[in-house]
């Protein structure tokens, strides 16, 4: 291939995002300067926060500008290197964006550029050992602080982060209740991931089911969705409970801001704590999470699920899958095989 295919951000989102927000272009393959590395993207990561990057407002990363290549994590292969630490043919994890080829400067960008450890597949690197796995680990362990015998409630439980949160909580001796949408996802969480109980928010009254499955209320709520589910959860918190605010995917595609929970005062009454976090703050400690997660996967204590799509032309539609609930587990897309 002599051209670099790209998907650019063409329009800021209003409501549900989709192909209309992006423009396909073809450009020349970029040149490499001293200290730089040219990579070919093989797999792309899709994460709910990508919609936030498309909005023109301050955040933990600068917004993607109109006309820029859409930002995304990737597993890529080094094609040309002007940096002594990276050799042609090596597989790396970086922020390759929605394009075939990218020039990366080691030590720069949201995640820099990191070689895949021996025996680690691209799927593992972008899921259980990637941003979502580390988010689950640090979010639960640092902010949820689970203790044996406690009850951990997880929303977005069938997603890449939520499913790992629940399994780590089980390993720590907790009762785990997940909230997910649809019988297939709920069955996977109960039968495969080992959750103690699961609530189908699409077909059940969430507050009533929390009362049933958390008879002693909950101690940790790991929230990936916000909105009405957060409000329902706040009706059932214990003394000194912890709410880990990881995401709010239920509100990401709203045209008008959604009303907030009307029962936040329950946190005051029960001396609870609600705290947000960003995984980028924990990247200096990445190996701590990776080593723990690799050990649990190797022992069979954690099962992870990947939803793999294929084809460069399907990139925008694959992102949309996150917000329509079509994915089970970590959403990835394969562009190419290694050379």
TrEMBL record:
GO molecular function: oxidoreductase activity, acting on the CH-CH group of donors, NAD or NADP as acceptor
Domain Enoyl reductase (ER): 18-333
Entries under Pfam families matching the protein: ADH_N_2 (PF16884), ADH_zinc_N (PF00107)
InterPro entries membership: ADH-like_C (IPR013149), ADH_N_2 (IPR041694), ER (IPR020843), GroES-like_sf (IPR011032), MDR_fam (IPR045010), NAD(P)-bd_dom_sf (IPR036291)
Alphabetical UniProt keywords: Oxidoreductase
Name by which UniProt lists this protein: NADP-dependent oxidoreductase
């Amino acid at each position: 291939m002599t051209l670099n295919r790209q998907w650019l951000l063409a329009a800021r989102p209003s409501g549900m995002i989709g192909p209309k927000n992006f423009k396909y272009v073809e450009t020349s393959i970029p040149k490499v300067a001293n200290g730089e590395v040219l990579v070919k993207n093989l797999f792309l990561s899709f994460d709910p926060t990508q919609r936030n990057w498309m909005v023109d407002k301050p955040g933990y990363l600068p917004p993607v500008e109109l006309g820029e290549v859409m930002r995304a994590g990737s597993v890529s292969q080094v094609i040309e290197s002007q940096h002594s630490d990276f050799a042609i043919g090596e597989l790396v994890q970086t922020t390759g964006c929605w394009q075939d080829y990218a020039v990366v400067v080691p030590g720069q960008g949201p995640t820099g550029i990191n070689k895949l450890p021996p025996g680690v597949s691209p799927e593992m690197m972008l899921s259980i050992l990637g941003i979502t796995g580390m988010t689950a680990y640090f979010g639960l362990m640092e902010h949820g602080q689970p203790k044996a015998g406690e009850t951990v409630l997880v929303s977005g439980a069938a997603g890449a982060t939520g499913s790992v949160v629940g399994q780590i909580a089980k390993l720590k001796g907790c009762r785990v209740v997940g909230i997910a949408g649809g019988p297939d996802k709920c069955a996977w969480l109960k039968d495969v991931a080992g959750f103690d109980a699961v609530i189908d928010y699409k077909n059940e009254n969430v507050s009533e089911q929390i009362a049933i499955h958390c008879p002693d209320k909950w101690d940790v709520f790991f929230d990936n969705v916000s909105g009405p589910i957060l409000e329902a959860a706040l009706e059932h918190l214990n003394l000194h409970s912890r709410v880990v605010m990881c995401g709010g995917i239920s509100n990401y595609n709203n045209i008008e801001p959604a009303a907030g929970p009307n029962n936040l005062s329950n946190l005051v009454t029960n001396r609870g704590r609600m705290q947000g976090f960003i995984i980028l703050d924990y990247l200096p400690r990445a190996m701590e999470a990776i080593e723990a997660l690799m050990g649990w996967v190797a022992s069979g204590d954690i099962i992870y699920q990947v939803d793999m799509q294929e084809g460069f032309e399907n990139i925008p539609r694959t992102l949309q899958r996150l917000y329509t609930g079509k994915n089970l587990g970590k959403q990835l897309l394969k562009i190419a095989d290694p050379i």
